[in-house]
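hey so i finally got around to running the thing on that chain from the lab meeting. sorry it took forever, my laptop kept dying and i had to restart like 3 times. anyway pasting the input first so we r on the same page abt which one it is
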Amino acid sequence: MEVRITTLSENTATYGYIAEWGLSILVEVEGARILMDTGLSFSATHNAQIAGIDLTSIDRIVLSHGHADHTGGLYDLLKKTGEIEIVAHPDIWDAKYVQRGQGETERYIGIPFRRETLEDLGAKFNLTSEPVHIANHVMTTGQIPMRTEYEQIGSHLCIHKDGISIPDKLADDLALIINTDFGLVVILGCAHRGVINTLNHARDLTGNETVYAVIGGTHLFLASDEQINKTIVDLKKLGVQRLLVSHCTGFRASSRLAQKFGDGFVLNNAGSQFTLP
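ok and heres what got predicted. didnt touch it at all, straight out
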């Protein structure tokens, strides 16, 4: 079994592609074409055209969570794909905000479109907290349990509900799992609920103990040195062979991961294409 990965939107880009804060990754496996996230605005659509990818051939869209940098490209993409199923957690529609500093005004970072607008363009939302089988050997994690003591949701993230601001538990954070004969390939959006939590949940769901590759955002750009160190130790314990990280991993964590994983590490940016194994 081969897994083909094409990154359509990311903070950085290879020559000829455009970069934009966010993430969108096309996964092709056994005839299925699944788009994980849609980037912040038009970059995924633009870069797909540069790469010669026919967006009408995408079978499903999976949204890792409801932040704008992973959902903002939906409008442009739906104009290309037409009617398509979109798999996500119900909480993607929470009113999501961020407050970076003390006294700073909260800024809206949720989905930048009304649900009805996207449905008029052909979006068919399949919203559930449970895992969803997308294709043979491909499934979502559903809601990810918080198990490690060192992976926590950032306190700067919140939602507005009933007129008040409360911490966002990011219950909508999920990942995509490809269960291959050479091990699990796990596609992350931001891993807000923790990279190691996500990988352990993927192993539990599939019964496959081998994690071959981790791809996407790891949300380590704000992590302490202690958290980065513990994450590296646990990635090594899980036997991860390939790290193709992106977006919210950050250069500090990326440099540490590169040192520890050597040739198994790749800084995955817009325009990157890989075939696994």
